[in-house]
């Protein structure tokens, strides 16, 4: 996601929506994502301290603290796995499942913040997304590996999980922190087929 | 990086540079990055098939195939590690080292392609980067873990490395493929300090 001075997704000449200062979230849903991943991402979008305070001190205020806007755009290409120079998108959740999942994230954002400050693009549409990246500031946010399979957790990751639990103090943190985890997908993992499995999806 | 219809970084009213169709690359350099990582990233930027061919078939042509432009912008915030809701940037290469590293990547891109089609922002400057993300198409590109510490390689990653070596056929691939690897940094790893170690860098 990026810190924006403005962001406007458009289909042809039609502007779908627009925000001013805030966050443009390009959201790629994985086949393995669950409600817990969605909750984690919503919490981080709203609570990460990516903005300056009124005195200009950087990295002190969240989008919620500043009353800024959030624009979400579905972006399955973020789930790309490289097969040599070929992008493969089989790790992305299929559109018929990703669409309700994406909309549930939007609803979660709206119910956790001010609904009128949460905007979105048009799921699956071919769009021109005009982003004025302010800074620029771009953060790569992935929901962390979950406790469902503790054998896969490295010592460092376990420590980090404990730290995150200990340090969480945000307004919408306490009740959800316990479940905030999922299996981190291996970005090098094969999507299971040996032959030509590059996606036939259009952007 | 994003597929662009246009991208224009600006400092105040001054437009630093601009591209039309092509790739906007937001480049975050890690403290652990080496020449091999740089070579890998350059090769993937130039050779990934992210564009359609003349018949409109998606994911068939690279930026080089289409004679499109590349705009690189330094973006240390991509090396963010979360400490709860606090972004920490100690994993980013310090600016005095990252600047020559970033410029060597630009030179590598220029010498591997047409120099006049490689543009850049202004290292370290506070900019407004106007990106028209076409699609949108955004790819999260990380140089893979290197063979320097094979104990850290999972079986899947080793297989993937072998596959990438076998499948590489791009014009600028053969000589560099052997060295294309580095240690994947653990995004949850601590930056080594226990107290308040959030970055004091401005965007």
From TrEMBL, chains A, B:
Record localization: Cytoplasm
Alphabetical keyword list: Cytoplasm, Hydrolase, RNA-binding, tRNA-binding
Gene3D superfamilies (alphabetical): D-tyrosyl-tRNA(Tyr) deacylase
GO cellular component, one term: cytoplasm
Record region (Disordered): 137-203
Catalytic activity of the protein: a D-aminoacyl-tRNA + H2O = a tRNA + a D-alpha-amino acid + H(+); glycyl-tRNA(Ala) + H2O = tRNA(Ala) + glycine + H(+)
Entry keyword Hydrolase: yes
EC number(s) recorded for this UniProt protein: 3.1.1.96
Composition skew (Basic and acidic residues), residue ranges: 152-163, 174-187
A matching Pfam family: Tyr_Deacylase
GO molecular function term, any single one: tRNA binding
Stated family: Belongs to the DTD family.
Protein name: D-aminoacyl-tRNA deacylase
Source organism of this protein record: Gasterosteus aculeatus aculeatus (three-spined stickleback)
């Amino acid at each position: 996601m990026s810190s924006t001075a403005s962001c406007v997704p458009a289909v042809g000449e039609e502007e779908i929506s627009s925000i001013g200062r805030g966050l443009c979230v390009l959201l790629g849903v994985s086949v393995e994502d669950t409600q817990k991943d969605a909750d984690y991402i919503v919490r981080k979008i709203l609570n990460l301290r990516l903005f300056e305070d009124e005195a200009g001190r950087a990295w002190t205020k969240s989008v919620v603290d500043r009353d800024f806007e959030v624009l979400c755009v579905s972006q399955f290409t973020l789930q790309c796995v490289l097969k040599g120079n070929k992008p493969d998108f089989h790790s992305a959740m299929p559109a018929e499942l990703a669409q309700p999942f994406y909309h549930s994230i939007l609803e979660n954002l709206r119910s956790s913040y001010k609904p009128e400050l949460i905007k979105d693009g048009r799921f699956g549409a071919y769009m021109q997304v005009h982003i004025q990246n302010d800074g620029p500031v771009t953060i790569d946010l992935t929901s962390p590996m979950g406790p469902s399979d503790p054998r896969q957790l490295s010592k460092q990751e376990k420590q980090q999980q404990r730290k995150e639990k200990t340090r969480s103090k945000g307004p919408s943190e306490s009740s959800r922190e316990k479940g905030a985890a999922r299996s981190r997908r291996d970005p090098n993992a094969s999507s299971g087929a040996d032959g030509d499995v590059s996606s036939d999806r259009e952007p």
